[in-house]
Amino acid sequence: MTINPVRRGYAVRLFVLLGALSIPAKASAQLHRATDTAIPWLASQQSESPLADLGTAEGNGLPGFSPAAPLSPVNPPVRGMGHSGKIFARFMLPEEKAVLAYFSSGNATPDSSSHPAAEAGRNAEVVFTMRSFAQKVRTHLNGYRLGYWPAERGRRRSNTYRNPDGFIEVTRENQDTRISEHFRLRDFLTHDQPNVWPKYVVLREPLLDKLELVIDDMRAHGYNAEGMRVMSGFRTPYHNGTRRREGSARDSRHQFGDAADVIIDNDGNGKMADLNGDKRVNSADVKIILASVNRVEKRYPELVGGTGLYSSSRSGAFAHIDVRGTRARWVLFRGPHSKRASARRASSKKGAVSGKATGKTVPKVKQVSAKKP
């Protein structure tokens, strides 16, 4: 990926600023790790003004921010963030917001005359201040049960399985905040502890971007995907553990905020839509979503991840989509009388098995144990 000089300037200023900030060593390490993710994200934006005017609300002593609350842009937005241009939220730790406040203060704003889009359209943003992972006390945060992440139990397989940096605080008041064109914050809540508030969520912006791109791609190929619904977004490790008998993987990507199980529910009945028009709703309809995911990943390799087809007598057919950073494909079926699911995982190599839903080839598959990533 090529970073233009202006965007590269952002990265340079970001690291210069890190040297000027006086923060504890632990917080500094978190901030350096956060910028490793933030810089590629900023560089990937289509908008020429990745750090736009975020409003004038005051919060935590930083100009332009209000903790865990939406900010109203001064000017009507033309586009949001991400490759899709439809992402309206950022989730940041306090020290990350200090860096962004520096850029948005005018001290490091690029010359708008060199960037027409900076004048024509500003990013609509909702900035949430996250609670740091260190604030979790054993299994709980502020009365909400989270459990233990794999790394806390010595099961960190790779860097992608490290502990989350922080948690988005979700309240009764902010749960309906729109974080992208098609999704609200509440769409990604774990389905448990209904009477406990506030709740906490781990969610990554690239996942939102990928979901929006899949909706766009499906529309471009003649399928109405406006009713994409998240059946399962973030799962706390505690809740994920209760789903092990249903086939959930012990170290599921849902625990890291970069995975979602989705259906296309255009008529609002809670079931997958008949996308291919054959008067039946089954895995063939989900394969249309998977084909779209493949096209999106081919166009945007930085959003590569896992995608799987699930079909069960209880939940029906649905698709899993994530942005884990490496390619993974699988198929999982669960019958009404089976004690364990029957699953097949697709290799990353090109196969030659035809897909009836798309008329294109799909990867060869082989038998594996039935666990949901």
In short:
This protein has 373 residues and is an alpha+beta fold. The chain is 25% helix and 19% strand.
Architecture blueprint of SSEs:
Blueprint: H1 5-20, H2 25-43, E1 58-59, E2 62-63, E3 89-92, H3 94-107, H4 116-120, E4 126-129, E5 131-132, E6 140-141, E7 144-145, E8 166-170, E9 199-201, H5 205-220, E10 228-232, H6 237-242, E11 259-264, H7 283-299, E12 306-312, E13 316-322, E14 328-334, E15 342-346, E16 353-354, E17 361-362, E18 365-368
Parallel strand pairs: 3-4, 12-14
Antiparallel strand pairs: 1-2, 5-8, 6-7, 8-9, 10-11, 11-13, 12-13, 14-15, 15-18, 16-17
Q: Care to describe what's here?
A:
Residues 1-25, 37-43, 45-78, 106-122, 337-343 and 347-371 have low confidence and may be disordered. This protein folds into two domains: 1-129, no CATH class; 205-368, Muramoyl-pentapeptide Carboxypeptidase, domain 2. It has 373 residues and is of the alpha+beta class. It has seven helices and 18 strands. The protein is globular and about 50 Å long. A hairpin with a 2-residue loop joins strand 6 (140-141) and strand 7 (144-145).
